[in-house]
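Q: what sequence does this backbone want?
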């Protein structure tokens, strides 16, 4: 909460991209989508995933308990593997049509800022529960490592979705390690070659390894959104919430 407010304040002082919509209704709409998402997290993800992590600890499921690593190594390894498998999930959520319909609700925002970090459709969050449970069970993530990763992920996604212009030298250095606002902004472009890049959600290394990193796009030249949804009428709250339930392919 404090991190979100601090980022919101900083975005107003050092904006990375020019806004196309008034901020207040934009933030209110994103928070309304986020409220439905928070309910899905409380009802579906938290109970399932924390139970799986407890089972990992009790029955020593998954990879990491077999490696008998000291805890100070096991937790960062668990976080890195969770981060990599989240990269894979993100690619799938663009490539698999029914997942894309739900993930598109996150992408059709016409401005990208810290409030977008919270704007995930409840169906997308629900659909990710089996994947998240599988990640925890197969990697063997302990409840402690899971809670550290969840906190880190929340701070990371607030940061890289933000509309915050960092000093270029700092942005360059951070970009070697973590996803920065400029890197993530390129993934929200209406241009397909730009949107099909920068899939990482925490560590930037996965895009470097897969050759999917793109950094040479000036932020002020980016149109944020998804092509059929670039006018205000198509991103109203009710239409966004209904979007994943539409039977027609996206954009018709
Ligand atoms: Zn995406």
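A:
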């Amino acid at each position: 909460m404090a991190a979100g407010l601090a980022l919101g304040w900083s975005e107003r002082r050092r904006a990375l991209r020019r806004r196309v919509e008034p901020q207040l209704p934009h933030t209110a709409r994103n928070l309304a989508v986020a409220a439905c998402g928070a309910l899905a997290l409380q009802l579906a993800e938290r109970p399932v995933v924390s139970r799986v992590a407890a089972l990992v600890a009790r029955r020593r499921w998954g990879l990491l308990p077999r490696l008998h690593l000291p805890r100070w190594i096991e937790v960062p390894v668990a976080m890195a593997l969770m981060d990599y498998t989240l990269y894979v999930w993100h690619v799938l959520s663009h490539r698999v049509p029914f997942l894309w319909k739900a993930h598109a609700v996150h992408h059709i925002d016409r401005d990208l800022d810290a409030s977008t970090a919270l704007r995930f459709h409840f169906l997308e969050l629900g659909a990710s529960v089996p994947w998240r449970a599988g990640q925890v069970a197969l990697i063997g993530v302990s409840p402690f490592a899971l809670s550290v990763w969840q906190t880190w992920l929340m701070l990371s996604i607030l940061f890289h979705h933000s509309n915050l212009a960092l000093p270029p030298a700092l942005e360059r250095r951070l970009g070697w390690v973590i996803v920065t606002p400029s890197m993530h902004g390129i993934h929200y472009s209406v241009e397909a070659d730009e949107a099909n890049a920068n899939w990482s959600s925490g560590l930037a290394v996965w895009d470097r390894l897969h050759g999917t990193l793109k950094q040479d796009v000036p932020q002020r030249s980016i149109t944020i959104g998804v092509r059929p949804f670039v006018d205000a009428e198509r991103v109203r709250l009710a239409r966004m919430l209904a979007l994943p339930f539409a039977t027609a392919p996206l954009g018709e």
